[in-house]
Design brief:
single chain; mainly alpha; Arc Repressor Mutant, subunit A; Tetracycline Repressor, domain 2; 9 helices; 77% helix; DNA-binding; transcription regulation; Tet_transcr_reg_TetR-rel_C_sf
Length: 189
């Protein structure tokens, strides 16, 4: 990827994250990324292709970050806790403006674009990762339980986007409840 293309992706990511996809115009992205209009269109012939590029990059970055966190843990419960910790660190970051996938799902109708496929790819990946961790723990109904945990994480993401001042206590109590739920599903505790 060229430096100019990278600049466009980074600028668009920052703007889309803060303001949404439809609220940010191409000219704003061009100005923020400091590239010529022709250069922009060379890399991204349409805004939708740019949004797809931004979401693909976000998908790759989130997967890599979560995997790095999980891989450093030895036990399944520690891996699940690491995912919650990763989310808490993300929520407390200065650049947190909510989930770009949740925002995209609100702005792009189901089945209308490739954007929805990218959103579903990340959510499916996260559910699968958590399901595998739950299976390592010996949890019954790991697939259903993984879906519930992702719903908790998505709910927390929306909550913290609305009110960042409750992060630590909110995360701690939600982790405690999630851990109890997982332990109830583990065979031969």
């Amino acid at each position: 990827m060229s430096k100019k293309e990278e600049d466009i992706i980074q600028s668009a990511t920052k703007l889309f994250s803060a303001f949404g996809y439809h609220a940010v115009g191409i000219d704003t992205i061009i100005g923020e990324s400091n590239v010529a209009k022709m250069t922009f269109y060379k890399y991204f012939p349409s805004k939708e292709l740019l949004i797809e590029g931004v979401l693909k990059r976000r998908d790759e970055d989130l997967q890599a970050g979560i995997l790095r966190t999980v891989e450093s843990c030895r036990t399944p419960i520690a891996k699940l806790k690491a995912i919650f910790d990763w989310y808490e660190n993300w929520f407390c970051g200065a650049d947190f403006h909510g989930c770009m996938f949740i925002k995209a799902s609100e702005e792009f109708p189901r089945g209308a674009t490739r954007v929805r496929e990218i959103i579903e790819n990340f959510k499916s990946w996260l559910v699968e990762l958590i399901k595998e961790i739950l299976q390592q723990a010996g949890a019954a109904n790991a697939a259903v339980l993984a879906q519930h945990i992702v719903v908790v994480l998505d709910g927390l993401t929306v909550k913290f986007n609305m009110d960042v001042f409750v992060a630590h206590t909110e995360m701690a109590s939600n982790w405690k409840l999630t851990k109890k739920l997982v332990q109830l599903h583990i065979k031969d505790k």
